[in-house]
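Aggregate trends can hide what the representation actually does to any particular protein. In the encoding step, the backbone of a single protein was reduced to a row of integers, each denoting a local shape. The record that follows shows the chain in one-letter code together with its fold in token form.

***
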Amino acid sequence: MNVKGFTGSLTNRNFIFLLIGQTLSQFGDRLHQVALLWFTYQLTNSGEVVGLMATATALPYLLFGMIAGTIVDTLDKRKVMILADLLRGILITLLFILSCIKLVNLWYLVAITFLSSSIAQLFEPAKQSSVPLFIHSEELLNANSLLSSWQQGARLAAPVIGGLLMVTWPPYYLFLVDAITFFISALMIYYMNFDSKNKKSEKDHSIKGRLIGSLLYMRTMPLLLLLLIMYAGVNLIFHGTSVVFPPILSEKILNKGSLGYGSMLTGYSFGMLLGAIAIKRIVTRFSILRIFSGAIFFGGISYMILGMTSLLIVVIICFVLCGFFFNIVSISFVTTIQQKVPISQQGSIFGLIGMIGMGVTPLSTLAASLLLLVIDIKSSFLLSGGLIALIGFVAFFNPLMKSKFVERGEVKAYD
């Protein structure tokens, strides 16, 4: 493929099917999240169970992330994605039916959420590691930018549409919409046509042997290890604090309640959309590794400023900037892995990334809550943002960030 420009990937038939399927699926997932939280609150009349649902979503990342990614490396990625979408569609349809006949309870919600999130551990590494199989290396940044921008657009629209639908529909009707988007996504992937099968030589080792091989591979790649440590550090700080801090900031500092909180979330999502669009222009001036570390630094600075202001407009701008920079971090990180890590190991690496990204959420949330017992909310933003900025600053001047990965090659598995 020899297409150029931001929309070059749109000439690729496989990418178009993936883009349509994932945009609709992200829209459905976001509708589901909005409906699930509201439906859970109606069912239990308790806001405390939100933490339980968050744990049910995050725990599979921690338990199964890297193992699922390693399994994906041994299977036909296209078939894995189709099966995962069909299974999640069936699970959410079951949840819809149970809700309609009034048989659903909190533990059914938790169980189905846990199972759906567990299946996602197979889908996400398969999706991320399959993109390099039908997108040329120099077009991967374009493809990831487009995929992210369309998905963020869907995530921006979904809460508004979901809120309007729940005015006339019971919230569990949105579960059916989500299930339908999974089935459509499976259909789109079915019509994709690329060589997603592993060669026989790649199947000759046990899952344990391939897992050990992946871990040893990371040990021999100091730059990859540095990127993973940075990514883990940022997620450990940001994921929990971004859940715990904003409602308190809106309520106690801004005195804006739910309006202020909603504005922050919308601003962050809008910033992610802008970041996805802007990264292609930025990468023409700086190396992708410099962009990765620089975006962490400026994202941390934006987060710090939240501890220095009491103005809603400044807070919204800061959240837009946080979304902008942290989505650039995510896109540049994923693209680097796709370009430089051997195809046969990408499932394992992306599984590990998912484990780092979402698996640390319960721990990060707990740490953020404990931090507020020691210092006030403004100081908490200053400390958290400062630590994130420090990670980016130190990494930017690390000599490893000037180095390059070796080109893709096969990695030995150990039995």
Notes: The mean pLDDT is 84. The two ends are 38 Å apart (CA to CA). The CA atoms of residues 66 and 352 lie 5 Å apart.
